């Protein structure tokens, strides 16, 4: 491990849980970036499913029916 990583690791240990969570969130955003493709794909899927229900191509089933 480089000296810089060691130094950063030591400083991270001094952070409280909230600060660590904020740092982690920032690092993940930096690595992954916003996933606009996934957001759009989910929106399209929701629209597709709602249209299928309205068109009678799919039925809404109660949660109890899924458990049986």
From TrEMBL:
Pfam families noted in UniProt: Unstab_antitox
Judging by the UniProt lineage, the source's domain of life is: Bacteria
Q: What InterPro entries has UniProt attached to this entry?
A: CHP02574_addiction_mod (IPR013406)
By what name is this protein known?
A: Addiction module protein
**Species per Swiss-Prot/TrEMBL record:** Massilia aurea
